[in-house]
Amino acid sequence: MSPIHAASSDVAFTPAVKAIQIRKGSREAYAAHGDWRTGIDENLAAFLGEATSFYLATASAEGQPYIQHRGGPKGFIKILDENTLAFADYAGNRQYITQGNLSENPKAYIFVMDYARRRRVKLWGEAKVIDDDPALLQSLMPKGYRARPEQVILFRISAWDTNCPQHIPQKFDAADVAAALAARDARIGELETEVAALRKTLASDLPD
Question: Same domain for 23 and 71?
Fold first, then answer.
């Protein structure tokens, strides 16, 4: 059973962490900052709805950490209720490290990075694998996405927080860059057509 925390941020700010914060002078600022959020609000829902990628961290019973990437089209992360996320877990290299870890230690962590807008969100919670509910699996599968769904992962949020954009390099997805370039090229084509028409009009207005 998970411990009951006095504050939601205690999921990360353990006594050892707080001791270091005190020693290094940041504890007072974090204490004044207040509790972290525990429910999914409109801003988080919108952020997750645009995400095409995130990292899922788990650990074995001995505490050995493991991080695995999860990706899909926008909207592949589904919100089931105010505290629960879910997504279809696709067949991959069949190592099953994440599933093995969750079978003995439900604690998990999701890290979502938006490089284009230089934003990042951290979510602490517990996760579990559901591999015997085909109806739920199909309901979570993005329409038209070419992947073979294998199981469902549910993630119940204990706390979440954001980070400042400091040191985040700005990067853009190839599809977004291609769309921007296509729009630019289309506009250039429109302007070239307008210029050609203006030149033709000017030439016809000139006296012989």
Answer: no
